[in-house]
Amino acid sequence: MAEEQQRGGVNRKQDDKEKDVKNIVLSPSTAAAHPPPPPPTPSEEIIEHGVKINVKGTVQAPKKHEVMYNSEMMLNRSVVLCALAAYSESGLCINGQVRCLDALGATGVAGLAWARQVPKVSVVINDQLQAATQRIKENAASNNLDVEVTTEDVSVLLHQRPFDFVFLDCYGSSVPYLDAAFRNIPKHGLLAVTSTDDAALYGKATDVTLRNYGGYIVKTSYAKELAARLVLASVIRAAAKCNKGVEVVCCVALKSFITVVVRVLRGPSAANKCVRKVHRIIHCCLCEDRAFYPQTVYPIEQPYSLLSCGCRSKSAGKVAVELGPVWCDEIFDPCFCQGMLTQANNLQLSHKVIALLQTVVGEAGCRDHPSTDVSLDKENTLTEGTEDTTLVPEEEEEEEELHGQSYHSLPQSYQSLDDPDIERSPKRLKVDHPVLRSPPFYFNLHRHSPKGHDLGKINRIVEHLRRAKHKASRTHFDPEAIRTNCTLAEFTSLLVEFSRAQKLKTDCDRREQCTLGHNTKLVPKWEITSCTLTKYIYVDVGVVVQMLQRTSGSM
């Protein structure tokens, strides 16, 4: 018995010591000496787009002799897969079979998915790293897929062989490969370029931006689309060196990547036409209004006249900067984007991919008439539901718009000059820009909404702008922004009008809900509750009597 009591006492002491150790708060020096355990390593095999990929020993950032696999780029690979499937079904390829190249293959996850999901195409997967090509061959053999694997420098391979579909999934800048990409690509070929150099594209490293892209960028509320148009400007210049032009069919920019998909057009005339659509932007640093510079060889005497804001007259000094040059034309092809969405549904991709493409399709159309299919009572999401993407012909759009003026160069209201009672807006410079189907850039509601106004759901604001005969849609670049052809002054005034209408409607709904029957009376709220003496509500007198009887009975 004595031995058992002694053992019990020892065990209790050990338990007390363990509790004391758990309750100790480690100092910084002690925590540095005892770092937390490393995170668990991922499984050796993953399944992506129906393909098993061995990711053992891979890294998310490229190193000298290690294979790279980034799970966060799965959404980007899904978008490129939809683009390839839509291109294969469109019949634009001049060859009998679409020749595809995954130029920077790594584990081969993108190219093997093409071979699995789009069996009509011929796939070549390339990587300069020997360990990567060995991993690609192993993954292809384990999935019973017939693909060609090469170990070449990307630029050398693109100079040696022509491909109808080229995917450059670059870690960092894509500029070093653009000249070689347009060397042998045939007419109507498709080029998908992914860039991940956020520091240069979002204005954090201006010197790198100037070296790689030949432009200047600052941090703005529309930075993602600005970065995408900067990449497109580099693509245009690289294509023009080979006497080729491009037609932008899709553009996606999310948190970790920017992907542009372009269709190649051959000939000097196409190249000249595209080069002329690379312009600079004047950007107001105070209100973030912006406008494209016109295509002219003459200097502009009053560049501030391009903006619709009055910040120049209200503030001293220089309030605007020049950004770019960037691509100033369309960045979506509605038909091609709709084809990508159709292929995403056929391939049964994830809901995240389908929601993204639905938003892109609505953004590409950017209608100017209210929708009857959109459910306005849904939560704020990236999608607008099943949206009707029927487009108005360009001839009809041009008749409705003012010729010879850009999207941000329209006056705040098209007023009659003969009416002396109407206050005239200041003169603004007329510029020669085509009227775009999808207006460039967007307005962030948190940045541009007037103070003290509750706006509510974004879909309702979009419908309000459309009822005002403006083009408007959600944008995938920013879930809290709206793409529209309004000027900044028009956009702000419409938001104020919408907020007042919403407040009036809410007050009416509350009165209707509080009105019970026909025997109503305006009763002070303090007679029912002791919350306040200033607010009044409509209530049924019979209901009040029943409440008072129950209260007196309980007392």
From TrEMBL:
<feature type="compositionally biased region" description="Basic and acidic residues">
    <location>
        <begin position="368"/>
        <end position="381"/>
    </location>
</feature>
<keyword id="KW-0820">tRNA-binding</keyword>
<keyword id="KW-0819">tRNA processing</keyword>
<keyword id="KW-0489">Methyltransferase</keyword>
<dbReference type="GO" id="GO:0000049">
    <property type="term" value="F:tRNA binding"/>
</dbReference>
<comment type="similarity">
    <text>Belongs to the class I-like SAM-binding methyltransferase superfamily. Trm1 family.</text>
</comment>
<keyword id="KW-1017">Isopeptide bond</keyword>
<feature type="region of interest" description="Disordered">
    <location>
        <begin position="1"/>
        <end position="44"/>
    </location>
</feature>
<keyword id="KW-0863">Zinc-finger</keyword>
<dbReference type="InterPro" id="IPR029063">
    <property type="entry name" value="SAM-dependent_MTases_sf"/>
</dbReference>
<keyword id="KW-0597">Phosphoprotein</keyword>
<protein>
    <recommendedName>
        <fullName>tRNA (guanine(26)-N(2))-dimethyltransferase</fullName>
        <ecNumber>2.1.1.216</ecNumber>
    </recommendedName>
</protein>
<dbReference type="GO" id="GO:0008270">
    <property type="term" value="F:zinc ion binding"/>
</dbReference>
<feature type="compositionally biased region" description="Polar residues">
    <location>
        <begin position="406"/>
        <end position="416"/>
    </location>
</feature>
<feature type="region of interest" description="Disordered">
    <location>
        <begin position="368"/>
        <end position="417"/>
    </location>
</feature>
<keyword id="KW-0539">Nucleus</keyword>
<keyword id="KW-0694">RNA-binding</keyword>
<keyword id="KW-0832">Ubl conjugation</keyword>
<keyword id="KW-0862">Zinc</keyword>
<keyword id="KW-0479">Metal-binding</keyword>
<dbReference type="Pfam" id="PF02005">
    <property type="entry name" value="TRM"/>
</dbReference>
<dbReference type="GO" id="GO:0160104">
    <property type="term" value="F:tRNA (guanine(26)-N2)-dimethyltransferase activity"/>
</dbReference>
<dbReference type="GO" id="GO:0002940">
    <property type="term" value="P:tRNA N2-guanine methylation"/>
</dbReference>
<feature type="compositionally biased region" description="Basic and acidic residues">
    <location>
        <begin position="1"/>
        <end position="22"/>
    </location>
</feature>
<keyword id="KW-0808">Transferase</keyword>
<dbReference type="InterPro" id="IPR002905">
    <property type="entry name" value="Trm1"/>
</dbReference>
<dbReference type="GO" id="GO:0005730">
    <property type="term" value="C:nucleolus"/>
</dbReference>
<dbReference type="InterPro" id="IPR042296">
    <property type="entry name" value="tRNA_met_Trm1_C"/>
</dbReference>
<keyword id="KW-0949">S-adenosyl-L-methionine</keyword>
